[in-house]
Amino acid sequence: MTGAKWLPTLMLITVFQVISAGQVVFTENGISQRSAAVFGTYIAIEWVYAIVSSIIRKKASPALEFVAFFLTGIGLVIVASVNENLLVTQFVAFVLGFVCFLFLLWLISSMDRAMFMRTPMAIAAIGLLIITLLLAKNINGAYNWISIGSFSFQPSELVKIAFIFVGAAALEKLQSTRSLTKYIVFAVMCIALLFLMRDLGTALIFFFTFLILAFMRSGDIRTLILVCVAAAMGAALIVLVKSDYVIRRFSIYRHIWENMDGSGYQQTRVLIYSVSGGLFGVGIGNGKLKNIFAATEDLVFGVLCEEWGIIMGIIVILCFAFIATHSIKCAVGCRYAFYTIAAVAAGGLLLFQASLNVFGVTDLLPMTGVTLPFISRGGSSAISCWALIAFIKAADNRTWLGSRYHTEVAE
Amino acid sequence: MEFFAGIGRYFMPFIAFFILLNCAFSLLKGNKRTGTLGYLVNSANGDRIPLRGFETSVGRSNSCDIVLAYNTVSRFHAVLSKHKSGWFVSDTNSKTGTFVNAEKTNNRTKLENGDSLVFGNAVFRFVDALAEQQEPVVEPAPAPKLYEADEKFYTGEVWRESESPASHAIVNETTGETFVLDDLQSCLIGRSEEAQIQIDFPSVSRCHALLSRQGERWLVEDLNSTCGTVLNSEQIYEVKKLVNGDVLDIGGITLVFKSDKY
Lengths: 411, 262
Prior knowledge:
The complex is a heterodimer. By secondary structure, chain A is mainly alpha-helical. Helix content of chain A is 68%, strand content 4%. In chain A, the strands form 2 sheets. Chain A has a 3-stranded antiparallel β-sheet. A two-stranded antiparallel ribbon of chain A has the order 1-2. In chain A, strand 4 (142-148) and strand 5 form a beta hairpin. In chain A, helix 6 packs parallel to helix 9 and helix 9 runs antiparallel to helix 10 (221-241). Chain A is globular. The two termini of chain A are 17 Å apart. Chain B is of the alpha+beta class. In chain B, strand 21 and strand 22 (253-259) form a beta hairpin. Chains A and B meet through helix 1, strand 1, helix 3, helix 7 and helix 14 of A and helix 1 and strand 5 of B.
């Protein structure tokens, strides 16, 4: 999708967003000006970005951002249909995330700059997690939120960016024992702090990302088996020590129908209402799932299936699969090992997080309370997802044609 | 509201499908293969090892892009990288060091077409594919290739044991001469005229070292020479087994042991 080929795709996206946003803008009480302004600005940002990027990076393909725009658009409409008051906050979070995406892309365009930033990033990430652990209040059983006045955010989401940034390294440093040791210490500290916060879902995502990074760095599957065995033993130890906590957490898994008005309430409602949605859904805003706790966060996939239909649900899942495949496709022939490692890790992280969410609410995996990337409501989540996209974008050589830091591709 | 909801419900999945289809083609395309951007020419046997990609790691480990099975090469020895300003080599904390035009490098060092590049004891000449197209460098005729197996080693493929009996040879790095050991039971190296491998060089003793066959393996021992025999940068005092790529230093003359099996 280079040259002006992006035009039809963006037009389709715009039509899609006008139709979907139209259903929340034109309400029975007349036109909601606030929603209209937000969606108007959102579509304008898409067009401005596409036009500017097609001028600056003539040969770059904006497909990845288009998929992200498409998913974010769905998320914004769902937020508007469930609780319009939260729409502006979510939109501001998207704008911040988009700025982060552009900033990170600029930051890693020069490898020297990226290498220089790794240590400060690592220290900032660990510091942020420690501060969270000290200050956080218990929200939904986990200590992972920081509140400053009326503004609150989830630092573990932002640490995801640093986790990948620090995990990827230049080929020169990749195999040196010092660099490896430093990284392992950093990763173990991050995951341990998340465990202490009882943010099991995010800890699991970090562990999975760690496995990808370890494999990408060493290319050695045997080491990974060792890591997994060690992790399994560690997990067994935790179960022995804190058995009641873990058992309470996982007892509901595969037993949701026995407690459908108790602890299986959310999952059973997701399954029941998704069925009533059928292929094309009951229409935006007509669903019943939106009245259930965390409808726009953890259960957003259920809302999507109920109100938009299962076809949309499958298309959304395919989007994540394509993002992850794209990161792997770009890993070959990449300019720097740093880009390869970061892109595959970011693609894997997004896919893994989406799977945890979707399989969690449908009771195929224990529910861990992670967000669906781009679509779930949540400021920190939106920022981190958009920032992670920058890593994948950087691995695509088409992004850098004509850049002053990069060699031309021999074609 | 009615209009959007009525049409939207049925149209949206189709539009979404086409959006995904349009993007998927571009997403699944990925990066183009870079082709060969340069070569490392092995001075010992004239092998041209292609550099395919912007960054290439060199070392003894199997996870390196170019696997050099010499004992003097560290597991992760060095990285060659192509930047906008040209080719660079960086030593990655190797034990034996990386030398560009006989100068030891510590930081990233720029490479020019035709530069000599030494990893431990392995000597290469660097060839930039782009520069070579513009002005081809006249290369000295490469010594005839010894064994097909050598090629496999460099391209990182798994070494498969050949069915035929093992074949061994000694290559004189200085002159490029090859001495095949296959029909011999033992082989004397020295300045003496009786030596099978005769090296007329002052620092080589008359009977300097002895290679002897034990089954399919070859052994080396020093014959009390004046300057000593050095195997892979270590002086030897007893009988040692030889493996492919072993480097023997006989009074300043470098000999490389080649084998297609061990």
